[in-house]
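Recall that a protein's primary structure is simply its ordered list of amino acids. Everything else, from secondary elements to tertiary packing, is in principle encoded there. The following example makes that idea concrete.
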Amino acid sequence: MNPIIEGDEKAGLFPGGLLLALGRQPSSFAISGIIRNSAGEVLTDKEFTVTASDSTEAGLDNSGIIDSVGRFYMNIGLGYTTIHVTDLGENIFTFTLNVNGQGFITVTANDSSEYVVENLVPYDPNNKPLFFDLTSSTPANNGTAYTPGPNIILNFSDTLPNWELSELQSIINNNVIVTPSSITFGSTAVSGNQLTIMAMVSVFDIQYTMEIGPGIYSAKGTPVTPTTIRFFTQENPP
């Protein structure tokens, strides 16, 4: 999933195709992405190493660190780049990215069913962007919510504003969209980087899709990277 983020130019991101307006085709790109496990939790504080690359361009990154909120930043060349992720030398997984001449990035290989690489974007290396990401949720992606009135808990990579209650309710109504519509929201609360929403489920034993939209923003004003969570509901715990 590579969503268009509001305010791309201000954030230092290149909208698709804009790179060609510079008058030449770049031979390398600064890119950022986020790594999550199957539950939607970000992978943090891990090392990555480039093990293969189509490019012979000078100045490309050979290694780096996935930061404390699950983001990696690196400069890679056109074509295919294979990246190996480790934890203190222990293998985690390997994936391959392909970058074309317009800076569009795709994941072409991933040897793990546990981790996904997403939200891949090129950015201006002279204007490194700020990102605001969902780092985990309850219910987790592919998880299950129990009882008629579960709490939906969303954890973010930075502090949330102290919104007035009416403004917060409007933001949630427009940016936390659950389908089918048989889950209704009740009271809400913000604490630091955590948003809690009381919910009432009227239909169980089905899959719901929850979309988190960019109208949720950090205390610094950075819109959240749009993210989708899928979960099931069950009336009684096992």
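Helices lie at 165-175. The mean pLDDT is 89.
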